[in-house]
Amino acid sequence: MDDLRVVVAKPLASEYVERLRSADPRVEVSYEPDLMPPMRWPSDHRGDPSFKRTPEQQARLAELVDSADILYSFPNNNSAELARIVRANPKLKWVHIMAAGGGSQVKAANLTKEELRRVIFTTSAGVHAGTLAEFALFGVLAGAKELPRLQADKQRHYWPTSRRTMGMVSDMTVVVVGMGAIGQECAKRFSELGATVIGVNRSIKPVEAVERLYTSDQIVEAAQGADALINALPGAVGTDDLISREVLEALAPGAIIASVGRGQCIEEDAMIELLTSGHLGFAALDVAKTEPLPADSPLWDLPNVVISPHTAANSAKEDSRIADLFIENLHAFLDGKPMRNVVNTELFY
């Protein structure tokens, strides 16, 4: 069998390109950096949006990706371009996507059932679990320790004469919604701090560090009286607004929200209303229903909300971790063994 061709279709530092090239002698790795936008920061998958290819460069990029047996990302993370490549390249066998929630990008490509059967799609799920779990932990700690009040006191140089109490994570019941790699890592971190961790998942499966596990249709019961809720849901079939007004109202008064999954999974208008009324005490949001978050969103002005612009997953080592994951899957693919993070092309997660 001829060597399979892996085409790297994203900006990538030379050290990681060389790591891919040396991974297995059965593949040839092609990367042409002049066709890629410059990275603005480490692990910048899209690159500088002001970069414009010449017509000749665009034609060369199309020729390159259309020659691939395996694609390491796809140009500009554009689902329409993904669809074009799949249809233009009948030899394409596998596409690896940089995002943990890459299933939504596959869904947006509107591929036929035959195309979805022909090409394997994998995601980078798990690579970002540690950084996102840390953000969720930061959010719950910030809410428990009343960060907005501390900041307000500092701004007006106020030292209160009365001693005030603060919440403790070890006294909390924390509901983690979504038991993928991110949700499992969140459960582990909160359990290590002594919290009682409740899990919610599409199906019941053993999850370390989770004391009780509920199915998605039991989410209101799971949330009843909980002190904090973590959104670790992917954008998939059945997850839109799963964290509904009813779920949010079931939480204990003053409960904390940390959202590190997908913004469309929370009924955002209800969350804003409950944050305004005080039923929800604090929210740390890395994602929003509409991104970028519109300038007129009330979330910007709520004092009990911290906003991260969908950057909590980023780390300097992200590209390194994704390369290692891809190489592990490459060996499995070549040896006919099960691969990690294969997209479910019915539910798209």
TrEMBL record:
D-isomer specific 2-hydroxyacid dehydrogenase NAD-binding domain ranges (all copies): 140-312
Gene Ontology MF: a single term: NAD binding
Domain D-isomer specific 2-hydroxyacid dehydrogenase catalytic intervals: 48-344
Keywords: NAD, Oxidoreductase
Pfam families in UniProt: 2-Hacid_dh, 2-Hacid_dh_C
Family, per entry: Belongs to the D-isomer specific 2-hydroxyacid dehydrogenase family.
Alphabetized PANTHER family for the sequence: 2-HACID_DH_C DOMAIN-CONTAINING PROTEIN, D-ISOMER SPECIFIC 2-HYDROXYACID DEHYDROGENASE NAD-BINDING DOMAIN-CONTAINING PROTEIN
Protein name per UniProt: D-2-hydroxyacid dehydrogenase
Source species: Brooklawnia propionicigenes
